[in-house]
Amino acid sequence: MSSNTNDPHYQAQKILSRRDYTEFEMRAKLKQKKITAAQIDDTINWLKDNQLINDADFAASYIASVLNYKSVGPYWLKAKLKQKGIAGDIIESAIGQVFTDEHEVKIATEAASRWQRLHSNAKNDKQKLYRFLASRGFSSDCITRVTDKLF
Predict the structure, then answer these.
(1) What is the 3-state secondary structure (H, E, C) of 55-84?
(2) Could you identify which of 3, 34, 47, 108 might form a hypothetical disulfide with 53, taking C-beta atoms 3.0 to 4.6 angstroms apart as the criterion?
(3) 11/107 Cα distance (integer angstroms)
(4) 3-class secondary structure, 52
């Protein structure tokens, strides 16, 4: 490996030194640096061979990270991962490993309780809570179970 700053492998490692990226994001970053399509393909293959990028690992890590600080549902996470260019089958697998019906209800209940504490004037407004939980990406079945439990 060369430390030449024009070397695409060096550029990719420099990019990855700040945070993890998906293959889609890395391609965009390398393209911004005026690296040719052939060099980008070669660099992506090199990154994969050296296990420096892996969309499945990224998805699992991203989901865990987000759920540590934000109560969101599987649809919200799917949308975010799709924006990051991760393939649908990888997203479904990563979501499936984290979300069971019961786990989704638990997270939605936490989000609903927090919402009710913060919105004491609308605390008993089932429709507003429903819309809030829907905007957070919870399934309608899950939302119905949570709102039925709370009201």
Answers:
(1) HHHHHHHHHHHHHHHCCCCHHHHHHHHHHC
(2) 47
(3) 39
(4) coil
Same domain, 61 and 33: no
* H or E element, residue 30: helix 23-32
CA distance 31 to 91: 25
* Surface-to-core class of residue 60, CB atoms within 10 Å of its CB (0-12 exposed, 13-18 middle, 19+ buried): middle
**Does one domain contain both 131 and 142?**
yes
Per-residue pLDDT at 87: 97
- Position 120 confidence tier, pLDDT thresholds 50, 70, 90: confident
In a domain, 3, yes or no: no
How many structural domains does the chain have? 3
The burial class, CB within 10 Å (0-12 / 13-18 / 19+), for 111 is: buried
Assigned domain for 108 exists: yes
CA Rg value for the chain: 20
Phi and psi at 136, nearest 5°, equal -90, 0
- Does one domain contain both 106 and 94? no
What is the span of the domain harbouring residue 135? 101-150
* Cβ 115 vs Cβ 102: under 8 Å: no
Residues 87 and 120 in one domain: no
* Total-model pTM: 0.87
